[in-house]
Amino acid sequence: MNKFVSVGKILNFHGIQGEAKVGFSKNQQDFFLSLDKVFIKADNDYRPLKIVRSRINKTFAIVKFEGINSINELLPLKGGLLFVSEDTIRENLEEDEFLIDELVGLDVVDGNNKKLGFIIGVSNNGATDLLSVKTNSKRVSLVPFVKAIVTNVSLKEKKVTINNLEGLLE
After folding, report:
1. Residue range(s) of every CATH 2.40.30.60 domain in the chain
2. Which residue has the higher pLDDT, 64 or 127?
3. CA pair distance 168, 141, nearest whole angstrom
4. CATH of 4-91, one of 3.30.70.1290, 3.90.1150.10, 2.40.30.60, 3.20.20.70
5. Which of 12, 24, 39, 159 has a CB 3.0–4.6 Å from the CB of 46, allowing a cystine?
6. Each residue of 141-168: pLDDT tens digit?
7. What is the 8-class DSSP label of residue 76?
């Protein structure tokens, strides 16, 4: 079964020709503009929407979908989340990029392979991604996902190695 990942949301209409204002994740405009097809979830099914054209306007995208030519045709889709297949996301990941759900649950170890805790979530503070790590002492600490601190991610070994700076986790 194909897994889908949300990449945007239809915020509203733009003009009268059926164009949509679409919100998308910060810093993902190049990826979003590269898409030629998305899916919208309707009645527990994913319906494909072919993208005819898209462009960025301030902090959102203006998207024209095939077969939607008026406000009335677009309005039922307003508020709908847009998805792509997980495979589409994976094809566009850089070598050091990961899907959030791949990191959640991984053990966090230090340079000596000592288990320090495990990842319970990933968030972003606007400047960088943050790993939420539940430590062995049951505290939750936020670890910046930067190369100086996160030295290795091994999905195969199900662990993330960090440079455990003093005060980082405790």
Report:
1. 4-91
2. 64
3. 7
4. 2.40.30.60
5. 39
6. 899 888 889 999 988 899 999 988 877 8
7. G
In angstroms, the Cα distances linking 28 to 109, 112, 148 are 30, 36, 24
pTM of the model: 0.68
For the record, the structure tokens of 144 come out as: 């910046």
- What is the residue whose two structure tokens read 């190369």? 147
**DSSP bridge partners of 8:** 24, 82
Spell 12-41 as b/e; 16+ CB within 10 A means b.
ebbeeebbbbbebeeeebebbeebeebbbe
pLDDT digits (tens, 9 = 90+) for 100-131: 778 899 999 998 999 999 999 888 777 788 89
Task: Compute CA 119 distance to the chain's CA centroid, rounded to the nearest angstrom.
Answer: 17
Structure tokens at 78: 């307003």
User: Could you give the C-alpha distances from 13 to 6, 56, 126, 166, in angstroms and in order?
Assistant: 19, 14, 27, 51
